[in-house]
Specification:
With 234 residues, the chain is of the alpha/beta class. 38% of the residues lie in helices and 19% in strands. It starts with a strand and ends with a strand.
């Protein structure tokens, strides 16, 4: 395997499947199956998941809600998604731990870096909920921060599209896909990979990001095995 320890970033919207909101059990089950393929190969897997399928702090703030309150609601949404994913993984026979950046001791461990690494070394999947624990930071920032803290080899960002394009491929049919691209070129071309804070943090720590289509079966295992899938930013 090319990568021994990965951080998988999933959007909350990905869990909706074909629904308009909430969590699709079939999609959860599919993801658990994909992740199990990795753990069966001895790959250490950490996951950060968004909360946009339940609540998004920024959109709440745009409707007149206090931004800090909205972001706290978004953090709780990521914990709900983390619990759902934990359940799906454990139903597939994968030992899983949910760690939260905000204390909810009845449902999740507090985030402790050394404990998280120990779980990974013992073959457990670790889900990081609660974002960074601070308002004004996205789950993209949480993903990069946790990946650096646990010394992950790569961030795998699972999306609906099969990589990074010169424009939105769903709107512009002439958009060109990049197989590889540098951090510098992403910034110069103004391409949207992650929010600027997360992207800069990844760049400063030389942590590669692979953007790929999470909904194509087998993609996750192929990437970790070294196949060229999606777009690699390095």
């Amino acid at each position: 395997m090319t990568y021994k320890r990965i951080l998988l970033k999933l959007s909350g919207e990905a869990l909706m499947g074909n629904q308009n909101y909430g969590i699709d059990p079939d999609r959860l089950s599919d993801y658990a199956g994909e992740i199990k393929q990795l753990t069966n190969q001895g790959v250490q897997v950490a996951i950060v998941i968004g909360g946009g399928n339940i609540f998004r702090g920024v959109s709440g703030a745009s409707n007149g809600m206090d931004r800090v309150q909205g972001d706290h609601m978004g953090m709780l949404a990521t914990v709900i998604n983390g619990l759902a994913l934990q359940s799906a993984l454990e139903n597939s026979g994968i030992p899983t731990r949910l760690q939260s950046a905000i204390e909810i001791n009845e449902v999740a461990e507090p985030f402790i870096r050394r404990r998280a690494i120990r779980h990974l070394e013992k073959g457990r999947v670790v889900i990081f909920g609660g974002g960074t624990g601070n308002p004004y930071f996205t789950t993209d920032s949480a993903a990069v921060l946790r990946a650096i803290e646990i010394e992950a080899d790569v961030i795998l960002k699972g999306t609906r599209v099969d990589g990074i394009y010169s424009a939105d491929p769903e709107k512009d049919k002439s958009a060109v896909k990049f197989d590889t691209i540098s951090f510098k070129d992403v910034l110069q071309k103004g391409l949207k990979v992650m929010d600027t804070t997360a992207f800069t943090l990844s760049q400063e720590n030389d942590l590669p990001i692979i953007v790929f289509d999470m909904n194509t079966n087998g993609n996750l295992l192929k990437i970790v095995a070294g196949d060229t899938i999606g777009t690699t930013v390095s």
